[in-house]
Amino acid sequence: MYDYRTGKQDWLGAGLPTEGTLAQRPRLVDVVRRDAPTCSLAERLGDVRDRVIAAGWDACVVVSQDRVVLGLLRAKELQADPHLLVERVMRPGPSTYRPFVSVEEMRRTMTERNLENSPVTTSDGKLVGLVRKQDVGLR
User: Fold this and answer.
1) Domain residue spans in the chain?
2) pLDDT tens across 41-56, in order?
3) Integer-rounded Cα radius of gyration of the chain
4) Is 0.70 surpassed by the pTM of this model?
5) Partners of residue 92 on adjacent β-strands
């Protein structure tokens, strides 16, 4: 266990004012979709899928009660047996990105890894939102 102290990256990730040559560089905090659907481990996939589709999404972030990211349901997982629990179907421990990451860097990452979307979290793992390809200028 360690005693975490906030720093420059948390400042940038919060979207607070910055100075310097990179101050105007767009970051994930500027484009992240904070309205991304979430679900819990104990929900039935069919209920989650209906809610996600009705909201116009094709992904859902699995979170704890404290909004810590536990997993991810992408389009493929959402098509599984609707009676299964989310816990059985989700992609556990997805790669997450911090709000201070530049849009340019995320564009490269999404292209290299062929990602449709990615969770954005705080330094302590709490969900900020989901960033989609089109949010970083990809089709």
Assistant:
1) 25-136
2) 999 999 999 999 999 9
3) 16
4) yes
5) 71
